[in-house]
């Protein structure tokens, strides 16, 4: 299969997962908007539904890029404030294991993504089939790191076997990539993460690590497109056909 054909199939899966997630949005909801290419499809479809008068929602975005996209398609945005909780956050993932433990942050928005995920009553992940893995770790685990602490963070991650590399800004190479908060992004190549909970504790204990990309116990469900199938995955429950779900389970 040619690369262009494969990209087309993956994009189609992303669109289909995003379109199915729109069925889970109810009128009047406060919605968290994720980051990345799959979440972008959802934001676009949400904007179309709002413009057609099918829904009324308000939202907060997990990245400046998603915020800009949401404004462009007419999604009303809320600024962060005390007491603000979201009925539903829809976001993508870089890897999803069978327990719906996630690696996120490939786009550099892991801190805001985790803030909104923890401020949400329901986190729904949307993904193409390539994101499903039997065990996390092949995708590099992102960290957001305070610039001053970088050398010591790299040393500590290396001792954990993470093979850390500072992410480079593709548009401004060789300058380092920065998060929306102005912090550095470090990608840790563990290859395999058999115990995400233990690794999360170890990373949290490193001074200078603002946040890591392991999302533990946050996702309530995932809609995953697999060619012509659309599946709903939930922790401890057998996969189900997504067409059977038109609201939050």
What does this 3D model show about the protein?
The chain is an alpha/beta fold and 249 residues long. It has 2 domains: 3-129 and 216-243, 3-Layer(aba) Sandwich (Rossmann fold), CATH 3.40.50.1360; 141-211, 2-Layer Sandwich (Alpha-Beta Plaits), CATH 3.30.70.260. 29% of the residues lie in helices and 24% in strands. The strands form 3 sheets. It has a 7-stranded mixed β-sheet with strand order 2-1-3-6-12-13-14, sandwiched between helices. Helix 1 (3-22) packs across helix 2 (37-51). The mean pLDDT is 96.
List descriptors.
2 domains; single chain; 249 residues; seven-stranded mixed sheet; alpha/beta; four-stranded antiparallel sheet; 6 helices; Alpha-Beta Plaits; Rossmann fold
């Amino acid at each position: 299969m040619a690369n262009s054909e494969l990209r087309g199939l993956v994009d189609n899966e992303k669109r289909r997962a995003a379109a199915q997630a729109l069925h889970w949005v109810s009128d009047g909801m406060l919605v968290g908007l994720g980051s990345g290419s799959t979440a972008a499809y959802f934001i676009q479809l949400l904007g179309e539904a709002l413009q057609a008068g099918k829904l009324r929602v308000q939202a907060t975005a997990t990245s400046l890029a998603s915020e800009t996209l949401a404004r462009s398609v007419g999604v009303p945005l809320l600024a962060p404030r005390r007491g603000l909780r979201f009925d539903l956050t829809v976001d993508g993932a870089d890897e999803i294991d069978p327990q719906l433990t996630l690696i996120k942050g490939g786009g550099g928005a892991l801190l805001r993504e985790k803030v909104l995920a923890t401020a949400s009553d329901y986190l729904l992940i949307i993904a193409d089939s390539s994101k499903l893995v039997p065990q996390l770790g092949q995708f590099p685990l992102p960290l957001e790191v305070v610039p001053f602490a970088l050398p010591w963070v790299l040393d500590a991650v290396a001792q954990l076997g993470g093979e850390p590399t500072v992410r480079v800004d593709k548009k401004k190479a060789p300058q380092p990539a920065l998060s929306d908060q102005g912090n550095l992004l470090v990608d840790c190549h563990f290859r395999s993460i058999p115990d995400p909970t233990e690794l999360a504790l170890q990373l949290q204990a490193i001074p200078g690590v603002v946040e890591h990309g392991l999302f533990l116990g946050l996702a309530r469900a995932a809609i995953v497109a697999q060619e012509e199938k659309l599946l709903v995955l939930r922790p401890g429950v057998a996969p189900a056909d997504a067409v059977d779900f038109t609201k939050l389970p």
